[in-house]
Amino acid sequence: MAKLAADARADHVDRIARDGYTILEGVIEPDLIDELLACLERIERDREVQPASNDFEGRHTVRIYNLLACGRVFEQVPVHPFVLPIVEGVLDPGCLVSSLSSIAIDPGESAQPIHADDQLMPVAKPHGPFVCNTMWALTDFTEANGATRLVPGSHQLDHSPPFPKAGVETIAAEMPRGSVLVWHGSLWHGGGANRSGARRVGIAMNYCAGWIRQQENQQLGIPLETLRGFAPRLRQLVGLTTYQHLIGHIDKRSPEEVVLGEAGDFRSVWDRAADSEPA
Length: 279
Description:
- Helix content is about 25%, strand content about 15%.
- By secondary structure, it is an alpha+beta fold.
- The protein has one domain (about 5-215): Jelly Rolls.
- It is globular and about 65 Å long.
- The mean pLDDT is about 95.
């Protein structure tokens, strides 16, 4: 599969630093989009998934959580070669899957309250990114059907938006099917109102730095047999390894070794430092 050129990657990372977001147009393969949509429709039907009863999640919005436990096709999402390198550029290669869910906004839905994805974390603003989130457009995103609303540059402010009413001007992140919106976790944003006659479907693939807690508990939320089938990079992304050879270890063993019962070769950052010391 093709990968993002280094200069294009750097350009997108720079845009996120400057504006708080970027859009990767048409990077997701049509066949993958079709498979994701079919799987989401099946899950919604089989589980009889219904909208929530609050304004934040939406009263006319269908959300399906913990998608890595819902089918093999979703394993392609966190590691996509056109998207993950951007996230790694914003965070670092030790980043983790924070959550993976779908968001289907139906006609008649009102706009979601403007918020920042890191505003529940008690850290002074502005700050460097430790959350980097993405929205995959499985259908066209238009202003009429509920495209994500953004406040460009708001990730540089010294506060989060007043919840639930921000009272600020926003722009619509319009993008064609197969595109991906990527944003800094401090950026003010929210789902748009759907005034069209069709459903707007997206996948929220959210990442966090390797040293903070994930939004969805990946290690407990995904069955062991499913975890065992993950490719090595996906295992890292859900937290089965350690960050900087230390954070997340279990009695000086990797989570992968303890949770999956597989042989491991964990060596802490301190052991590695000792190796480099002169005799």
